[in-house]
Amino acid sequence: MFDGLTAETLARMQFAFTVSFHIIFPAFSIGLASYLAVLNGLWLRTRDRTYLHLFDYWKKIFAVAFGMGVVSGIVMSYQFGTNWAVFSDKTGPVLGPLMAYEVLSAFFLEAGFLGIMLFGRKRVGNSLHMLATGMVAFGTLISATWILSVNSWMQTPAGFAMNDLGQFVPEDWWQIVFNPSFPYRLVHMVLAAFLTTALVVGATGALHLLRDRQDKAARRMFSMAMWMLTLVAPLQIFAGDAHGLNTLEHQPAKVMAMEGHYDSHPEGAPLILFGIPNAAEKRIDYAVEIPKLSSLILKHDLNAPLDGLDTIPDEDEPPVWIVFWSFRVMVALGFAMLGLGIWSLWRRVRGRLYDAPWLHRAAVAMGPAGFVAVLAGWITTEVGRQPFTVYGLLRTSDSLSPVDAPAVATSLVAFIMVYFFIFGAGTLYLLAMMNKGVNVVNHDLQSGPIRTAGLTPSQQADDEIETQKDETNV
User: For the whole prediction, is pTM greater than 0.90?
Assistant: First the structure.
């Protein structure tokens, strides 16, 4: 299957495959953890049991997604030692502490409070349970912060020096953590996670509205998801534009590949909407373009000059075909999200948000769009950095472990088989949970871990008293 491929190409394929599986789960769990915190807070504030039902429903889905994210992430860390040992050796003094901080300050925070969030409402009380839920959400955001700091440093390295062994060693941790691309990348990724979750929640609510327009829980989750989509999609477009300008400043070759600019344009560059990159001839075939619009977007001036890949040595060019199309997939899905949000706002203003079957069908169809956009954005970012692991300083070909191609190919095949079996089954289980709807979930306020002895009479009496109190409050 992999005859003729080098160890470097196979190692890159392996890391790309495993990280692609991994990134979709944190992208979902980051947004879902915040959504759970909002649901729990609204339940405590309003005592509207719909919020509680939704919290109980989505917390189980979160637990499965969180577990799948943890398992898929562990595999990636081993590849730094097996396939990318030279990279680990040279960047370890800088990146090692950052990844350790992520585990100590973020992952432990999430994992430590997760059990309380899932099972502890009766045992610790509403206040501490709310604190635990908030800490899980906060932990996911801090985890994303550290990981994105690591990745951003690889894109825009700063605050380091080189020692006699050729290693990157820290000189200024403030510059390392808050490197030039970090703020833009963090905002862009967190907003992407919120949009991904909003689309999944919205698709789930829309699916159940298509079955029953009077489903109160489906109405509530669909409405909340569409509000998030309407508000965040425009912010993401502006954040993406700012991120693009930052990338132009620090990684111009990546932007050239994204735009498909093989040639420099001294009097204003066109925006190429579509086309087929021709690497051999250094041009975009069958290009559909708008004159000078790229200069307006990137330089805010129609006539501003833009350099092309003809100013970059051939050996330093990123793979244009992949970056060109992955960027367009991401942008197209971003505007599709904006369109869905505007459509839902229009129906909401008319008072027909829940009586709009075509809107609901569109929301169901857009359910996976956030994951696809995240993957497309990651491909744009990572492939656009090539041929470097540390941009401009450490080449990918110089980062590889001394491994043979057959060994990497064997482990890649094993990963493909195991991942599709385990994570395929996990994904089907998540979809089955979403398909069941809120009404099949046990909404008992005092639910906890299942007892082998069943529900005792005293506990049942206590639960009935608590339920009567809640109904009185409502």
Answer: no
